[in-house]
Write a structure and sequence with these properties.
The structure holds 2 protein chains of 2 kinds.
Chain A (H helix, E strand, L loop, with lengths): L1 H7 L8 H38 L2 H5 L4 E2 L4 E2 L2 H32 L2 H16 L2 H20 L8 H25 L3 H9 L4 H12 L1 H17 L2 H7 L16 H12 L5 H31 L4
Antiparallel strand pairs in A: 1-2
Chain B lengths: L12 H8 L4 E12 L2 E12 L3 E5 L6 H6 L11 E9 L2 E2 L7 H7 E4 L10 H11 L6 H11 L3 H4 L12 H13 L5 E5 L7 H14 L4 E5 L3 H7 L2 E8 L9 E9 H6 L4 H7 L5
Parallel strand pairs in B: 3-8, 3-9, 6-7, 7-8
Antiparallel strand pairs in B: 1-2, 1-4, 4-5, 9-10
Helix pairs in contact in B: 4-5, 4-7, 5-7
The chains are: A mainly alpha, B alpha/beta.
The complex binds adenosine-5'-triphosphate and magnesium ion (MG).
Chain lengths: 303, 282
């Protein structure tokens, strides 16, 4: 082997140093993000563990009574707030975003798309406080109260709606990218069978782009989970499991900001609780990603 | 038939015979012109496509063969900037009339493309797609099986009908696309170089298949392969490119000669046809 290789000159005598350098540099770049993730987990874990020395994990995770002043850390009330906002936002942004994407990718002519896409991107750039005030000044008084006059000024419905609007551009834009990258030949195959545009979009393009669409929705959802300001402004700060959409709630991030804003002293249980909340959020996001990967694997139509 | 007199340049004795035998025309193409933006692709094409015959379209690359057969199922509607002029009558009806729905046209006139393009779904769902589109969902399983049998694919896939189509070989995928097109019992089958991505064995299978399909379908096939045209078709239309930079007209595809395949391959009337089929084409 060795002899043959040398005779034909196919094998270089030494490993190419530049190749090696590139490889190491790229590895370090990849390693950096792993290290940052590790660092974040470490920082979270340390304070979370010391928090759980003071508070029973069971009374944290399994109880729904969040009243830190009186020593009650039942996280479910805050988890409910976060979940209901994310799901509500998803209900707004999912269908609207995918419909927008289908329109932009399959229906709109290039000129219309050139106008609408930048507008969507501007929407994505609006500061979230503005969305909060939009909820307070428009969504609640003009929309919700038109349907249900007794609606509280701080309520989770308006918060979910504006967070949905806030993540809409993300969902629409990424879904559109996914759909546009579906090969034209698939569309032609379907049109050639006499399929209408709607059927081609819904039965061929969207399923083929499903993994991208789900990724877009999950990304939108994790932005909704993390969204703080708009929710704090629109939904108030009442930790409770409120089935009524017109009532106020508090989300995990909203509480974290409230405490980090100076209410609690470093080392106190309240201070520790925000790390426990951070860890919980982290786990929720992880679970979300895991579920979405499983989902995509199961239903993807890979072209 | 008086339609023949409208295109004296493609009038051929053998075709006269065919027509006199009361062959029905499925398509009557009259002065068909197609362009992309301001660039013409084909110009003044007139011919008839006959019922239950295989018509081959041959010619050098870029002469507008694909453009031409895409006119028959209004596929060019989907290409931005494409414009079609002139007339095509499908069983006497103007295909490009204002009130004709292109979607309805494509339900009757099926198409198989150059590259196999199965949907990223199961084999079964690929074949069922057109059936669902056409609301032919009674006895769906039977119809799917029948189509796969017609496309000579059933035996190879019957045990993995729910597997993704992407797991099939290229030749199988192309036969799946043929099955997909056949499932809805179209009147006409358009095939744009259906074998160009296939090996000789798969090609033979598809050619055999076409012979069987001829009993029930009118087929128009574009092919680069002269032997294939000679083997499978009853009639052959030879297209070429005319006009160039020197003649200050932009090049466009024209129909040079249209006749029975036998005539085209043994005694073509036009010098350009002869040069092309004998391989002397520039
Ligand atoms: N979508 C399109 N947009 C613009 N021009 C096009 C388009 N499709 C084809 N053309 C042009 O029209 C002419 C005819 O193309 P067409 O694809 O019909 O040729 P063809 O005979 O099928 O060639 P081939 O044998 O290589 O497939 C070519 O000059 C081509 O560049
Ligand atoms: Mg072509």
């Amino acid at each position: 082997m060795q002899a043959t290789a040398t005779r034909t000159g196919l094998r270089s005598q030494r490993k190419r140093p530049v190749q090696r350098l590139v490889r190491v540099a790229l590895f370090l770049c990849a390693g950096l993000s792993v290290m940052v993730t590790g660092g974040i987990i470490y920082a979270l874990a340390a304070d979370t563990i010391s928090f759980f020395k003071d508070v029973e994990p069971a009374s944290f995770f399994l109880s729904a009574d969040w009243a830190p002043q009186s020593g009650d850390f039942g996280v479910l009330e805050l988890v409910f707030g976060t979940a209901i906002i994310s799901l509500g936002a998803m209900l707004v942004a999912g269908p609207l975003g995918v419909a927008t994407a289908i329109y932009l990718s399959e229906y709109a002519n290039p000129r219309v798309r050139k106008v609408i896409k930048p507008i969507l991107e501007v929407l994505a750039g609006v500061p979230t406080v503005v969305f909060g005030y939009f909820a307070l000044n428009f969504v609640t008084p003009s929309l919700l109260r038109a349907v249900y006059p007794g609606c509280g000024i701080f309520n989770w419905a308006s918060a979910a709606i504006v967070v949905g609007l806030f993540i809409l551009p993300t969902v629409a834009s990424l879904s559109e990218d996914a759909m546009r990258s579906v090969p034209t030949s698939l569309r032609h195959g379907a049109y050639g069978l006499g399929a209408s545009k709607l059927r081609v979009s819904a039965r061929v393009v969207a399923p083929a782009a499903l993994s991208g669409i789900v990724a877009a929705i999950i990304l939108g959802m994790s932005r909704a989970v993390g969204e703080t300001m708009a929710v704090a402004i629109a939904a108030g700060a009442t930790p409770q499991i409120a089935v009524n959409p017109c009532e106020s709630i508090q989300t995990m991030t909203a509480y974290i900001v409230q405490v980090a804003g100076g209410e609690a002293s470093t080392g106190s249980i309240q201070y520790g609780s925000i790390f426990a909340l951070g860890s919980t959020l982290f786990l929720i996001t992880l679970a979300l990603n895991y579920v979405s990967i499983r989902f995509v694997k199961r239903f993807r139509e890979a072209y | 038939m008086n339609v023949m007199t409208q295109r004296p340049n493609v009038l051929a004795p053998d075709l006269e015979d065919l027509v006199n035998e009361h062959e029905t025309s499925v398509f009557e193409v009259r002065d068909l012109t197609a362009s992309y933006g301001a660039t013409p692709a084909i110009e003044n094409v007139s011919l008839d496509i006959f019922d239950k015959k295989i018509t081959a379209v041959i010619g050098p690359s870029g002469c507008g063969k694909s453009t031409f057969i895409r006119c028959f199922n209004r596929m060019n509607d989907l290409v931005a900037g494409a414009h079609v002029g002139g007339k095509i009558f499908y069983r006497g009806e103007d295909l490009y009339a204002e009130d004709v729905d292109a979607v309805e046209v494509r339900r009757r006139i099926g198409m198989v493309f150059q590259q196999p393009n199965p949907f990223p779904k199961s084999i079964y769902d690929n074949v069922a797609f057109g059936l669902r589109v056409n609301r032919m969902t009674d006895h769906l399983d039977d119809r799917v099986e029948k189509a796969l049998q017609d496309a000579a694919l059933w035996d190879e896939v019957k045990r993995k009908i729910k597997d993704p189509a992407s797991a099939l070989s290229g030749g199988q995928q192309q036969r799946l696309c043929i099955a997909r097109a056949l499932a809805t019992n179209p009147d006409v089958l358009l095939m744009d170089e259906p074998c160009s991505a296939l090996d000789p064995i798969a090609t033979t299978k598809i050619e055999d298949l076409m012979h069987e399909l001829k009993a029930d379908y009118t087929i128009v096939i574009v092919t680069h392969n002269m032997q294939q045209a000679a083997r499978v078709s009853d009639l052959t239309a030879f297209f070429s490119v005319e006009g160039s930079a020197e003649t200050d007209r932009s090049p466009r595809g024209v129909l040079v000669e249209y006749d029975t395949t036998e005539q085209i391959f043994t005694a073509p009337n036009d010098r350009r046809t002869e040069d092309y089929i004998t391989g002397r084409f520039g």
